[in-house]
Amino acid sequence: MKQNKTQLTPEEHRLFGDLMPEDLEEVINSGFNRRHFIKLMSLASAGLLVSYTLGAEQLFARSVEIEDIPDLIPQAVENGINVTFKVNSSSKNVLIDSRMTLLDTLRERIGLTGSKKGCDHGQCGACTVIVDGQRVLSCLTLAATCQGKSVITIEGLAKENDLHPMQAAFLKHDGFQCGFCTPGQICSAVALMKEAKEGQASFATQNIGADAKSILLSDEEIAERMSGNICRCGAYPNIVAAIKEAQTGKNVVQNWLFTD
Fold first, then answer.
1. What is the rounded (10 degree) CA torsion for 29, 34, 35, 36?
2. pTM of the full predicted structure?
3. Which residues contact 143 (CB under 8 A, 6 or more apart)?
4. Euclidean distance between CA atoms 188 and 236, whole angstroms
5. Across the beta sheet with 150-152, what order do the strands follow?
6. Going along the chain, which residue ranges are E strands?
7. How far apart are CA 83 and CA 125, in angstroms?
8. Is residue 103 exposed (0-12), middle (13-18) or buried (19+ Cβ within 10 Å)?
9. Residues 6+ apart with CB under 8 A from 221
10. C-beta of residue 119 within 8 angstroms of C-beta of residue 180
11. CA–CA separation, 171 vs 175, rounded Å?
12. Residue 59 in 3-state DSSP?
């Protein structure tokens, strides 16, 4: 059987050739996978991707290839039910335990591991995904309640080689360090912009009794609305700057702190 090779752009080919030459042939023959993504994230943390911005953005936008997950034997699943819903524009029908959370279904049954399991108690926000346009904590959401709904995870935000504006803003403003909470942060931020556009108020909203209209998010508004997403690395100022730029479409000056 003829193997389909991955077509890399010139920028992507240069990035792998210079920084990860030992992986270049594998990426071409087998595709960009999770291990390559983790290595790129470590290079980003070390600041080695600065001169490879275009190639890195294209690769981050690619969907990470996952292995096929075998169907479960119905008799082996306690309280088994079939749930059909749309995940990142693809219809999925999965056999699960009726008590299985959306987070575990996405990670263990569908193979989308971008959504992270942090506290597993709905307190850190690392598992945030978007269901029918609203952000939810997938560790506290039963997958069975998503029957017929649309679920968007971090893997579904980019369009082919084009990053979602929020993803691009997070990269520009260095809105992450270890990256563990970043998928939940970005999904929460994307839904947050929809909430603001619809005029949904928060605790920090001024003139809450006025007619609902699009809210221009201040730093205080963003901090309040993102308070359910914890970043243990403390990248909050950069996250606020990224969300502000993504909402307004205007350039926000990067804040760099240097020590002597």
1. 60
2. 0.72
3. 83, 94, 96, 100, 101, 102, 104, 105
4. 14
5. 90-97, 80-87, 150-152, 128-131, 134-137
6. 80-87, 90-97, 128-131, 134-137, 150-152
7. 24
8. buried
9. 196, 202, 204, 205, 215
10. no
11. 6
12. helix
Span between the terminal Cα atoms of the chain, in Å: 59
For 200-213, give the secondary structure using H, E and C: CCCCCCCCCCCCCC
pLDDT for 182-227, tens place per residue?
999 999 999 999 998 888 888 878 776 666 677 888 999 999 999 9
Tokens of 151: 């679920």
**Which H or E run includes 35?**
helix 34-45
Q: How far apart are CA 20 and CA 99, in angstroms?
A: 42
Measured CA angle at 29 (ends 23, 31), to 5 deg = 75
Q: Retrieve residue 112's tokens.
A: 């989308």
Q: Is there a contact between 235 and 181 (Cβ–Cβ < 8 Å)?
A: no
Question: Strand 150-152 to strand 80-87: parallel, antiparallel, or no bridges (unpaired)?
Answer: parallel
pLDDT in tens, 33-72: 767 777 776 666 556 666 666 566 665 566 555 445 556 6
* Alpha carbon distance 62, 161 (integer Å): 6
CA nearest to 138, candidates 179, 108, 101:
101
Cβ–Cβ contacts within 10 Å for residue 204, how many? Answer: 17
| DSSP 3-state of 166 | helix
Angle at 197 between CA 196 and CA 203, to 5 degrees: 20
Q: Are strands 150-152 and 134-137 parallel, antiparallel or unpaired?
A: unpaired
Q: Which amino acid is at 155?
A: E
Cα distance between residue 53 and residue 230, in whole Å: 27
